[in-house]
Amino acid sequence: MKRRLRVDPIACKAHGVCAELFPERIRLDDWGYPVLDDRPLPDELVEHARRAVDACPRTALHLVPIDERGARGRPELPAGDEQLLP
Amino acid sequence: MSAAVAGGAARLLPAVPSAEGYTAHLATAGPLPAFSGDELIAELGRAGLTGHGGAAFPAALKWQAVAERSRARGAVVVGDAMETEPASLKDRTLLALRPHLVFDGMLLAASAMRARRVVLCVASSSDALARTLVAALAERRRAAPHEPRIELVTSPSRYIAGEETALISRLNGRRALPRAVPPRPFATGVDGLPTLVNNVETFAHAALIARRGARWFRSVGSAAAPGTTLLSVCGGVAAPGVKEMAYDSTIGQVVAAAGGPAGDPVAVLVGGYFGRWAPAATAWSLTLEPGSLRRAGLALGAGVIAVLPRDACGVAETDRILAFMARESSGQCGPCSRGLPALAALFHDTALGRARPGVLETCARWSLEIRGRGACRHPDGATLMAASALEVFHDELRRHLRHGPCRESARPPLLPTPVLTGR
Predict the structure, then answer these.
(1) Does the pLDDT at position B199 exceed 80?
(2) In this structure, which topology does domain B22-217 adopt according to CATH?
C-alpha cells in the first residue's frame, strides 16, 4: 500500500529532527516547522521516512495510506480516538 | 439595524424590524408541519439549501450524515450563533428578530435525528442577545411544553471559538479550541454522539422549507443557487446593516440595497476577514452565486460585504485585519501561531513604509507557505485575505513603501478589529 507523510500540526513543536533525517521530503519553514512533500513515497524512501517518523520527539509525524481522505496535512485518526489529541 | 431585500424576496427578515414573539411567529409562519426525518431531509436536498456559516456545505448531506449515525445512539443538534466575525451582524439580527423560526429549524433537525440534546451557542460577549434568547426560550417552553428543551450555552468570544470543532470542545467541557479532523462532528461530537452543527440562518431556512416546500424555496435565486441569503453590508455604503438578497443579485445590487455607495467604491472585501478583496469594478457585476464568485477567486463566506471607498486605505484596513487574525490564532499550530504574527508584522512595516526591498515577495511567499498547515482553516483564511490584498492593493503597497503611509490611512478605521476578551 502506498503511503505518504502527515504531520499533526497541534502536536508538532518544531524540533526539526524530521527534516534532518529526511531532507528528501521534509524541509523547515522560516520558523522551524516542517513543510512536507506529501506525494506518495516510493518504496526506496519508505525506510527513511519511517526513521523520521520514529525519531519525532512529539510523535507528531505519521505515515498514512495515500487513499485516506481529509487531506490538509493532518493525521488521520479513527473515529472516537479523540483522546489522542490535546 | 435595518433590513432590505431584492425583488421583494424577504423570507427571514420581517418587514418591520421588531422582535417577533411566539404567537406572532405562528400567525406569520403557520404551525410546524409533522414530517418524517427522511422526508424532511429529502425536501432540504430538493431545495438545494446550503450552510450559511461560511463553508456553504449542502445541508441535506450534513443532516443525512448525522441521521444515519443517530439511529443507534441518538444525536446532538447545535445551532451556531457565535458570529465572532467582527464585521458580521446577521446571526444576532436574525435571532433578535425571529428567534422562533431558528428554534423551529433546530427542533425539526432534533426530531429528524432523534436528538438527545438541542443546544444554541452564542458568544459570551453577546450579553444582550443572550438575554433576549433566554426570554424567547422561556416563552417557547410555556407555549409549547411538549417540545424538546433548547439549551442556551455561551462560549468565549474568540474568533476561532465559532469553528465547529471548537464549539464541540466547549460543549464537551474542554477549552473552546479547534482540533484536527477527523473525527468530524457528524460522526463524533458532543458527548461522543453524532452531532449536527449548523449556522442559525441555515436552521431558519430549513424551518421555512419544511412549511412551504422545496419548490417555493427555489422560486427565488437561480437554479444553481436557489433562495436568499443574509448579508452584513458595511464600510462605504449609505445604509450599512443586514440585508436579505436572492443569490442571483449582484454585489452592485447588494450595495444599492444598502443605500448605495458612500464615496467612490474602490474595492470590496467579500466573505469577511477570512474572505478576499476584489476591485470594485470586478466585484460589482458578480452575483452572489458560489459559481460566479468562485470564477473571480471569491467566496461569500459568512456573508460579509465590506465596501472600501476612495477616502479609506485598503493597505491600512488590511494591516489591522491581519493583526487581528494573528492575535486570534488559537496558538496550537506553529505555522499559524508563528507565521501569522510574522506576516502581519511585515505587512505592518510595509504599511508604514519602513520595510526593506523584497518585503512584498516575502509576504507573498509566507502567505502561500503558511496555508493549509493548521488543524483548522484559520491560517488559510488569513493568508488568502493577505494574498488578495497584495494583488488588489499592489500599487498602493508600493506607494506606501516609497513614500510612507498615505493620507487616507490616517482616517479612523473603516472595518472593526476589536480586541476580543476571550472570556
Answers:
(1) yes
(2) Rossmann fold (3.40.50)
